[in-house]
């Protein structure tokens, strides 16, 4: 059984479709492969407030932390560490061909 968690991620986020599920599950999605080839993190999962109409997202960039009962309970990150992480992610995202502006995402994932 899972538990509620919150993902903190710097990078780009894509809403995914059911048609993409096989490639995402097998990590053959081109965005995942680009992330792997450029030393970026990727994370795919359901982040929905509605168990009936689930929304899945793919994050590509740098996973900062996942907070929850089955994960970490806290993170302390100095401003300079965050700056270095973000700058590194921006360079690698551009090199991997991602054109969307990277952002900081704090995404709650309820366990229904």
Describe this structure in words.
By secondary structure, the chain is an alpha+beta fold. The chain has one domain. It is built from three helices and four strands, in the order βααββαβ. The protein has helices at residues 21-25, 30-37, 79-95, and strands spanning 5-15, 41-46, 56-68, 103-109. The longest helix is centred in the last third of the chain and has 17 residues, at 79-95. The model has no long low-confidence stretch (mean pLDDT 91).
What's this model, at a glance?
The protein has 112 residues and is of the alpha+beta class.
Give a quick set of tags describing it.
about 110 residues; about 25% helix; 4-stranded antiparallel sheet; alpha+beta; 3 helices
């Amino acid at each position: 059984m899972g538990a509620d968690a919150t993902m903190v991620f710097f990078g780009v986020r894509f809403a995914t479709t059911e048609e993409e599920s096989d490639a995402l599950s097998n990590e053959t999605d081109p965005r995942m492969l680009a992330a792997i080839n450029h030393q970026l993190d990727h994370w795919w999962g359901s982040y929905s407030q509605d168990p009936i109409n689930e929304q899945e997202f793919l994050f590509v960039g740098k996973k900062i932390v996942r907070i929850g009962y089955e994960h970490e309970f806290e993170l302390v990150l100095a401003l300079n560490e965050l700056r270095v992480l973000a700058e590194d992610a921006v360079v690698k995202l551009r090199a991997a061909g991602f054109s969307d502006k990277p952002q900081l995402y704090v995404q709650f994932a309820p366990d229904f």
